[in-house]
Write a structure and sequence with these properties.
Blueprint (H helix, E strand, L loop, with lengths): L1 H23 L5 H24 L2 H29 L7 H19 L1 H4 L3 E7 L5 E7 L1 H27 L5 H24 L6 H18 L3 H14 L3 E6 L4 E4 L1 H6 L7 H12 L12 E6 L4 E12 L5 E10 L1 H15 L9 H14 L5 E8 L2 H8 L1 H18 L5 E6 L2 E7 L5 H9 L14 E7 L7 H13 L9 E3 L2 H23 L2 E9 L5 E12 L3 E3 L1 H10 L3 H21 L6 E5 L2 H6 L2 H11 L7 E5 L8 H14 L3 E6 L5 H7 L4 E5 H4 L5 H17 L4 E4 L4 H10 L3 E3 L9 H8 L4
Parallel strand pairs: 11-12, 14-16, 16-17, 17-18, 18-19, 19-20, 20-21
Antiparallel strand pairs: 1-2, 3-4, 3-7, 5-6, 6-7, 8-10, 8-11, 9-10, 13-14, 14-15
Helix pairs in contact: 1-2, 1-8, 2-3, 2-8, 3-4, 3-6, 6-7, 7-8, 14-15, 15-16, 20-22, 22-23
Bound molecules: ligand C2E and calcium ion (2 copies).
């Protein structure tokens, strides 16, 4: 009895220690184990009461606690087994049934003092003289035991099931627990069967708790880990070669053999191959470095990365090393792809702008003695093509152009797509021929059959004289050259020169300062007298002059073409027309009603202004007779949108304006057009007639034109009249009016008034 008590106390202390350790453990299973261990204390406590109780009542309580404690412990054991074996899918009804049965069992055990259906007791005196109440089983005790065995059976089943179904590797894990239970079960059965007066089974329970604690919380399954590690090594996608301290390959994993297509798993063969590839014999390598090599597999090029690590034992002695081989082929390919995307244009596959400029800089630097051209290409009206035919067609054209550039560029050139429809190409000067490029630019034909829009490629060439310029500036210059051909239908290719740059700077200056010029009154109307054959001044043409703030006095030739190009002419003309009206209004106020003024109208004015409304508003504002404001138009006005233009002209005439055909004879279709144009006066410029080689021929034509005008009842004004001789023959031919240096140059209003105004 004493030994039993001591054994029980010692085991209980150990159990308490296990409980404390389990409580501190962070393993997921710890909670389960903890509950199981604590529940094991219950029957132990029951037993302790039995041993020290001595009285009938306490013994009764001890037995009851023992029975109930066993129930609770078995329930927790079941739960533990379930968690330990990771079996989550136990059916709810099974669980509920077992809980209910155990609960009923507990109640019936508790009711034993009433009915004695579980057990009775009879006192015995032990060797040491103490009293011990021995248990006499009644019918229900067997039911209780059966229930216990059912629970134990369930636990064992779970473990056996796992043991059978799990991978071989894991069997150890379940076997240890099963063995533990087996030992306890045998111990237990023995005590029940042997009918030894004192129930020693408690020792079994506690032992069981301790073992379960040990295997669940403390035990490190080295065998399992070894197996796992070697599995990991052989399954690793990296190739691994292990070397002994002498540098001999003692093991290589499957991946290593697979990488090098070695079938017979011969480590020596593999070692040779690897050292050949690395050019390092003998291995090992410098462990601080990573070696990258490409390995030609015939069909495929592998990119492999090698790194070697030394292996030390616990005392820090070198025991060998391993070589890690990583297959970087996919990564390398991805890098290459990313590099490609970062440097190339997605649509055409050509270099993108950044990469093009970088490549240009490099090529120029690497070949300092070679001469290069920077060439820009641009699709005329690309935006329009995109708008009309859609961006898919636009894209197709861009791709086509890219292919063409690809085709015509020589191997020593670099080229790329800069943006939208702009392409750049750097080419050795001696590879370039103008013909090639003009031909090439024509080889980007219609992309779609139903597309009747001529695709015109413009090419600008900058001969790189100044290599210190940034590539982007070089290409800008090529595009400046293109800007200079914008309105020339025939021209495909233009060269940059410094004049071009000056021109463009000039254009920018003019366009940029017009607004201020108009506001400050720097833009002024000059007047050139128109006289009749008797020499009397009948009127004047208004010709614009610009007293530019920084550039001085500018004739219209210096700025009108620019303003026409960018349509700013409209603002200037509106201003000049109003100035003309102000002069007429002033003269009217001063009682001079007989002089008319004629103003010039540019084709762009028709495009952007409602000409009829504008002039009607002007004469109404200044209360003028429309016949005093003559309007000079040129043939080009009716080149497009003929019907509307003719209508406007008709309306202006109906209102009372007099329309003059300016620069007659400068165009092509003049004579035939004359019949259809509702014009009042014909202006013939002498300079167009004297452009012919044969002055006599010119005169004949002039004669004819004047006759034709007479037939059509149109007065003729000859402008550009410089000599007395011209005046004479023009008079003879029947010319009605003259304008030219012979009579007067264009002058300011003040000068004009001083010269002619007062004379009569
Ligand atoms: P245009 O309308 O044909 O004007 C006649 C040009 O011939 C004027 O040149 C005039 O100065 C010049 N001229 C007159 N008599 C003679 C002569 O005997 N010999 C020579 N060699 N030239 C003579 P200007 O003033 O330089 O004007 C040039 C052109 O600028 C004008 O040609 C006209 O097309 C345009 N222009 C002038 N002012 C205006 C304006 O206010 N609005 C618009 N839209 N265009 C204007
Ligand atoms: Ca004119
Ligand atoms: Ca003219």
């Amino acid at each position: 009895m004493i030994t039993y008590t001591i054994a029980l106390i010692v085991l209980t202390i150990i159990l308490l220690f296990c409980i404390a350790r389990t409580h501190a453990s962070t393993k997921p299973i710890a909670g389960c184990v903890l509950r199981l261990l604590i529940s094991a204390l219950l029957p132990v406590l029951g037993n302790a009461i039995l041993v020290v109780g001595q009285t009938r009542a306490l013994s009764m309580a001890g037995y009851i606690l023992y029975f109930i404690g066993t129930d609770v412990m078995l329930l927790f054991l079941l739960r533990y087994a379930q968690v330990y074996c990771s079996i989550e899918h136990i059916h709810l009804s099974v669980l509920v049934t077992s809980y209910v049965l155990v609960a009923i069992d507990m109640i019936l055990v508790l009711l034993n003092p009433l009915w004695y259906h579980v057990f009775k007791m009879h006192p015995i005196t032990l060797n040491d003289g103490s009293t011990y109440y021995q248990l006499d089983s009644m019918w229900y005790h067997y039911i209780h035991l059966s229930l216990n065995y059912v629970l134990v059976f369930a636990v064992v089943s779970i473990l056996v099931y796992k043991l059978v179904t799990c991978q071989r590797l894991y069997r150890e894990k379940y076997t240890v627990i099963l063995l533990t239970l087996g030992v306890v079960a045998i111990w237990e059965t023995y005590y029940i069967a042997a009918n030894i007066p004192i129930d020693m089974s408690m020792i079994g329970y506690v032992m069981c708790g301790i073992l379960i604690y040990y295997f669940s919380i403390e035990y490190v399954p080295y065998f399992l880990m070894d197996r796992m590690l070697s599995n990991i090594v052989s399954n690793l996608s990296d190739g691994l070669l292990f070397f002994d301290e002498g540098g001999n390959c003692i093991y290589a994993n499957d991946s290593a053999y697979r990488l090098f297509h070695i079938q017979d798993s011969d480590p020596e063969k593999l070692q040779h191959l690897v050292s050949d590839l690395l050019g390092e014999d003998p291995l090992p390598l410098d462990p601080s470095r990573i070696y990258t090599r490409t390995y030609d597999m015939g069909t495929q090029k592998l990119t492999l990365e090698f790194s070697q690590r030394n292996i030390f034992d616990r005392r820090n002695l070198l025991i060998g090393s391993f070589l890690n081989i990583q297959d970087r082929t996919d990564e390398e390919r991805r890098f290459a792809m990313e590099r490609y995307l970062a440097t190339h244009d997605k649509l055409t596959g050509l270099f993108n702008a950044d990469h093009f400029y970088q490549s240009v800089a490099r090529l120029l630097e690497e070949n300092p003695d070679r001469e290069y051209l920077m060439i820009g290409a641009d699709i005329k009206e690309f935006k329009l093509i995109n708008d009309i035919y859609g961006s898919r067609t636009g894209d197709a054209i861009l791709v086509k152009l890219a292919r063409t550039i690809d085709h015509y560029a020589t191997p020593e050139s670099v080229y790329g797509r800069i943006n939208n429809d702009k392409f750049g190409l750097l080419m050795p000067k001696d590879h370039f021929t103008e013909e090639l490029f003009v031909e090439g630019s024509k080889n980007v034909p219609y992309v779609e059959a139903d597309m009747n829009f001529p695709i015109v490629i413009h090419i600008g060439v900058y001969d790189i004289k100044d290599r210190t310029l940034a590539p982007i500036i070089m290409l800008d210059r090529a595009f400046l050259a293109i800007a200079s051909i914008k309105n020339d239908l025939e021209k495909r290719l233009a060269y940059y020169d410094d004049h071009l740059r000056d021109d463009i700077l000039w254009e920018q200056k003019i366009s940029g300062s017009l607004e201020e010029g108009l506001r400050k009154g720097d833009v002024v109307p000059f007047l050139q007298a128109q006289v009749d054959p008797s020499g009397k001044v009948r009127g004047a043409e208004i010709l614009v002059r610009w007293n530019h703030e920084t550039e001085g006095f500018l004739p219209p030739g210096r700025f009108i073409p620019i303003l026409e190009k960018n349509s700013m002419i409209v603002n200037m003309d509106r201003y000049i027309w109003e100035s003309a009206c102000q002069i007429l209004a002033k003269w009217k106020k001063e009682g001079k009603q007989d002089l008319y003024l004629s103003v010039n109208i540019s084709p762009k004015d028709f495009y952007f202004l409602n000409i009829y409304d504008t002039f009607v508003e002007l004469v109404e504002k200044y209360e003028l007779d429309p016949r005093l404001l003559r309007l000079e138009i040129t043939e080009t006005i009716v080149m497009s949108d003929i019907q509307n233009r003719l209508k406007t002209i008709e309306m202006l005439r109906d209102y009372g304006f007099i329309l003059e055909m300016d620069d007659f004879g400068s165009g092509y279709s003049s004579l035939s057009m004359l019949k259809n144009l509702p014009i009042d006066v014909l202006k013939i410029d002498m300079k167009f007639l004297y452009q012919t080689d044969d002055p006599m021929r010119g005169r004949t034509i002039l004669d004819l034109v004047i006759q034709l005008a007479k037939d059509l009842d149109m007065p003729v004004i000859a402008e550009g009249v410089e000599t007395k001789e011209q005046v004479d023959f023009l008079t003879e031919m029947g010319c009605d009016m003259f304008q030219g240096y012979y009579f007067a140059k264009p002058v300011s209003l003040r000068d004009f008034e001083q010269s002619f105004y007062f004379e009569g």
